[in-house]
Write a structure and sequence with these properties.
The protein is of the alpha/beta class. The protein has 17 helices and 19 strands. The radius of gyration is 29 Å and the shape is globular.
């Protein structure tokens, strides 16, 4: 098959500015001898948001790079109008360190930025000529046509919507935190009403309020938007279609993630049921043929059944790249009535009081989600409760029956400079029983967490982020604790693993304290919500949807009153 350019630009009337269509024709990609996907034919049309889903390694980000023109496919082409402006969420957080926040966001529209800088340079010339005046006039007209005079106010609205202060507009990017840079780069991708927006994991490192703002922005946006995301609530809220990367194919389905999931599960069941009926029919025909093929009176019937048997085929189930780990937490001991009492905890970090006279009591059956923007406050509290930090003031007391397992935000200390393979690493946390200390037990346990074959002999220091998370969850499951503390457990995980952790915590009979930015995760697990605002604690029983549906505003008013 003839190889075509990655991007083809069309002059046809169907592709005039405003249509913002992307047509994918017979795209295939072979990578390092492996076919990620083949014969992909899709059409992305304006006014829609498409969610790209698939297991880690299936090729989601790779396909997005092909759409953006950053990567050339092995075969086929991607057709986009030359008049349509495409904006892509940048992943290099250091790329714009020499620029101000304002300039970085405006660079989302490179042409506008170039016009602005050329115009400014002309006005700064000491020997401003008549020719410079003519050029400046042309640039002023173009600048105004592109909305240049509103650019600063547009940037301001974007960064404030994402939860950043307007005071940072003229700060250099190099002075910002990693979390702030993520938001600025997202604002850059959304700036200036691009015709096409490509977003790879736009909700990563965003707090739930910022994610809600982004959801509203996308739903009000008329651009053609394509997103890769592991956030189920986000996909359900913004997507009009789902693009599934699996089985070496890429297929498009109308509807949001939940609709796709239910439909795909139904299709899998239908294929299995059909195969089961076919297998039963095949066995029935084979039995008849073996019994009566030598019988003259039945020979015609046996021949007819043989012809029917030749036509019956069992549909082979394609090999999916999706794999669900087993995540299940059991308690060695039922917790008593006294779980945890916190009284007057205060802690200052880097000159800021992140915990200010915090008091609360944890009850049996509580599953508490810590939400909100203040990541440092949540992590600091967890570290204090696990005795990794000392509070400046206040006390806390665990009940005598309580055993805890902790999933830290930063797990690097468990893996960096560690030469152990997975089997030996897990062996550090197995119990004293002879069964748990066998290699077969450890390999079986790792197998349920998707580490199979020679993978179990890999040094843990070379594992990916998602693999390290699965290791940490395995470690927690071995402890049999009745209280689990988890700080952002879904980071680095694909949708299948997030679903497994989600279900594991729903089924857990003990107490859970956790922080997460995943709306669906918080809503389905938590029965109590806590949020730190300027070091003070908001504490409310109920679901997350109830909390943000009006209770939060009421609690904030009381806190500030």
């Amino acid at each position: 098959m003839r190889s075509a350019p990655a991007l083809a630009f069309c002059e046809n009337e169907a592709f005039k500015k405003g249509t913002a269509m992307i047509t994918v024709n017979d795209v295939s990609l072979n990578f390092s001898g492996q076919t990620l996907f083949k014969h992909v034919d899709l059409k992305f049309v304006p006014g829609n948001c498409y969610g790209i889903i698939g297991a880690n390694g299936a090729g989601k980000t790779t396909f997005l790079r092909i759409l953006s023109g950053d990567l050339e496919p092995t075969t086929g082409e991607v057709v986009i109008s030359k008049d349509d402006r495409m904006s892509v969420l940048k992943q290099d957080h250091f790329q714009y360190d020499a620029y101000t926040v304002l300039d970085t966001v405006i660079l989302g529209n490179q042409h506008l930025y170039d016009v602005m800088k050329e115009k400014d340079a002309l006005y700064e010339k000491e020997d401003f000529s008549d020719a410079d005046g003519v050029r400046a006039s042309e640039l002023e007209a173009e600048f105004a046509e592109m909305g240049g005079w509103e650019a600063e106010s547009d940037v301001s609205r974007l960064i404030q919507g994402l939860g950043l202060s307007n005071d940072i507009l003229y700060s250099e990017m190099s002075t910002l935190t990693a979390k702030e840079k993520v938001k600025v780069l997202l604002a850059q991708a959304l700036f200036g009403k691009p015709d096409i927006i490509l977003l790879d994991e736009p909700t990563n490192h965003l707090d739930i309020q910022a994610i809600e703002w982004l959801e509203d922005f996308i739903m009000d946006c008329e651009s053609l938007i394509i997103v890769v995301s592991h956030d189920r609530h986000f996909l359900n809220t913004v997507c009009t279609s789902i693009v599934d990367v699996d089985y070496g194919q890429i297929k498009m389905y109308v509807g949001n993630y939940e609709f796709w999931y239910q439909s795909s599960q139904l299709m899998q069941r239908m294929i299995k049921d059909q195969n089961k009926k076919k297998e039963e029919k095949i066995k029935e025909l084979q039995d008849f043929i073996s019994r009566f093929s030598a019988n003259k009176s039945k020979s015609k019937q046996a021949t007819a059944r043989r012809k029917l048997l030749d036509k019956l085929t069992v549909e082979e189930m394609p090999a999916s790249s999706r794999r669900y780990p087993f995540v299940g937490f059991t308690m060695d001991r039922e917790p008593g009535k006294e779980i945890l009492t916190v009284e007057g905890l205060s802690k200052t970090v880097d000159g800021r009081k992140v915990l200010d006279n915090v008091s609360f009591r944890v009850n049996k059956g509580d599953k508490i989600a810590f939400v909100g923007e203040d990541e440092i406050a949540k992590t600091t509290l967890f570290k204090i409760l696990m005795e990794e930090l000392e509070p400046d003031e206040g006390t806390f007391k665990w009940g005598t029956t309580i055993t805890t397992s902790y999933f830290p935000l930063d797990n690097s200390a468990f893996f960096n400079d560690c030469d152990l393979n997975l089997v030996d690493w897990l062996g550090q946390y197995t119990g004293d029983s002879a069964d748990e200390n066998t290699e077969s037990f450890k390999r079986s346990f790792l197998g349920r967490m998707l580490f199979s074959g020679d993978d179990v002999f890999k040094p843990v220091k070379v594992l990916s982020g998602g693999e390290k998370v699965r290791c940490m969850l395995s470690r927690m499951m071995l402890f049999g604790s009745n209280v689990l503390i988890l700080d952002q457990p879904t980071n680095h995980l694909d949708l299948e693993s997030i679903t497994a952790v989600n279900n594991g915590l729903i089924d857990f009979k003990g107490v859970v304290l956790f922080a997460s930015h995943d709306h669906e995760f918080v809503q389905t697990v938590a029965n109590r919500i806590m949020e730190f605002v300027d070091g003070k604690l908001i504490d409310k029983m109920g679901t997350y949807d109830e909390y943000i549906g009006g209770i939060r505003e009421e609690m904030l008013a009381r806190l500030n009153g």
